[in-house]
Amino acid sequence: METTHRCKHLVTKLWIPNYDPDGYSASISSSSVQVDLTILWQLEHEWMNIASDGAASIISRCVVHSLALRLPLFDYQVFMSDHTSQQILSGALLSMGVDPYLHDSIIINIVAYARSIRNLVSHMAAGMVFPLRARIRLVTMHVRNERVLIDLATRESMIENEGRGKGMIPATDISIKALKTETILEGESCMICLEELSGGSKVTVMPCSHVFHGSCIIRWLKQSHVCPICRFEMPTCSQ
C-alpha cells in the first residue's frame, strides 16, 4: 500500500553570473544591449518526512534529467514586449521538452527578473552583452506524513471493529449506488488507502464533495455510514 503523497512544484531561479561590464562585447553591431541567456531545465525528486509533531525534513534528493540550452544573442528590448518574449522563450522551452502548461509561469518569472535589472542595463553601452542564467526545476515531492500513517492505522482498526459488529451502522445500498463518478483534473490522494489519485482518473464523489477510489469508499460505507474525512452522514436503514 502506498503511504506517501506526491506533489509537484516549479522552482525558477535567475541570476547574472560573474558580471563584468568590461568583459563582454557583442560580435555584431547592435543599437541595443544584447542578452546571452542560458536556460537549465531539471527534473528532480525529493523525499520528505513529516513527523507527528509537524517537523519536516528532507530525506533524499536526486536529479533524473538535466538539459542546458544557450539561446542565440538577442536584444534586451525583447523583454519589454510580452508578445515577443513569449514567442522566443516558449520556443526555447518547447525545444527542451518542457511541458507547454508550464511555459507561462516560467516566462513570467524570466521576464520579471529581466525587467527588474533595467537600471543596470541602462548603464551599459549599446552592443554590449551581459550573461543571464535561468535554472528551472520541476520537483516531484514524495511526502511521508506520520500523522497520516497514524490516521490510516486508526481507520483500519475502525473497519476491523465494524466488521466484528461493534455498533457501527452501514449506509444503505441505494445511497451507495447513487454516488456519482467523476474524472479529476489534478492529482490528490484517496484518504482511505492513501494512494495517489492521478489526474484523469475516475473517482467516486461523496455528497460532501470528498473523493475516493470507488472500491475504497464502497467498502467503507458498507461498514460505516459516515465520511472518513468530515463525518458527513449517509442514509441508514434506521433512518
UniProtKB/TrEMBL annotation:
InterPro entries per the UniProt record, alphabetical: Znf_RING, Znf_RING-CH, Znf_RING/FYVE/PHD
Top EC class of this enzyme: transferase
Gene3D superfamilies attached to this UniProt entry: Zinc/RING finger domain, C3HC4 (zinc finger) (3.30.40.10)
Organism: Vitis vinifera (Grape)
Reaction(s) catalysed (UniProt annotation): S-ubiquitinyl-[E2 ubiquitin-conjugating enzyme]-L-cysteine + [acceptor protein]-L-lysine = [E2 ubiquitin-conjugating enzyme]-L-cysteine + N(6)-ubiquitinyl-[acceptor protein]-L-lysine
Keyword annotations: Metal-binding, Zinc, Zinc-finger
Family matches, as Pfam families: zf-RING_2 (PF13639)
UniProt gene name: VvCHDp000839_10
Superkingdom of source: Eukaryota
Domain RING-type, first and last residues per copy: 190-231
GO molecular function: ubiquitin protein ligase activity; zinc ion binding
E.C. numbers: 2.3.2.27
Keyword Phosphoprotein part of the UniProt annotation: no
UniProt keyword Nucleotidyltransferase present: no
Membrane-spanning intervals of the chain: none
PANTHER family for the chain: E3 UBIQUITIN-PROTEIN LIGASE PRAJA, E3 UBIQUITIN-PROTEIN LIGASE RDUF2
Protein name: RING-type E3 ubiquitin transferase
